[in-house]
Write a structure and sequence with these properties.
It is built from 2 helices and 9 strands, in the order H-H-E-E-E-E-E-E-E-E-E. The protein is mainly beta and about 130 residues long. The protein has one domain (about 10-130): Peptide methionine sulfoxide reductase (Metal Binding Protein, Guanine Nucleotide Exchange Factor, Chain A), CATH 2.170.150.20. Strand 3 (about 60) and strand 4 form a beta hairpin.
Length: about 130
């Protein structure tokens, strides 16, 4: 997939105001409000901005944190990780490698019983679920 490059004006034209706020301005949706927070459906989670494959449902787990959580992306190069020192704390921001849109943050060492000991805390508004064929 070719990298997606758009001006901020073009992004505003293709994204809703909430999608733009989260994906392009690194906003966060309110906890426990997102479309995919409690979703159990099987399929592929794609970047809402560009359609790149990011996560698969078999890596999604219940973290009870208020946002969809995954323990790893589909490919190591599907996301870009950036140190985020905003809000007076050190975090690691996750962005789509294809269009550089904000997805959420990655946390480690929280004690979840997942293979990677990571929690990819992702905004639902950053994702689109492509259901598995039934």
């Amino acid at each position: 997939m070719d990298k997606v490059r758009r001006t901020e004006t073009e992004w505003r034209e293709v994204l809703s105001p909430e999608e733009y706020r989260v994906l392009r301005q690194a906003g966060t949706e309110a906890p426990f409000t997102g479309e995919y927070t409690d979703t159990k459906a099987e399929g592929v989670y794609r970047c809402r901005a560009c359609g790149a494959e990011l996560f698969r449902s078999d890596t999604k787990f219940d973290s009870h944190c208020g946002w969809p959580s995954f323990y790893q992306p589909t490919e190591d190069d599907a996301v870009i990780l950036i140190e985020d020192n905003s809000l007076g704390m050190r975090r690691v921001e996750a962005r789509c490698a294809n269009c550089e849109s904000h997805l959420g943050h990655v946390f480690e060492g929280e004690g979840y019983e997942v293979p990677t000991d990571q929690r990819w805390c992702i905004n639902s508004v950053s994702l689109t679920l492509e259901p598995a064929d039934s």
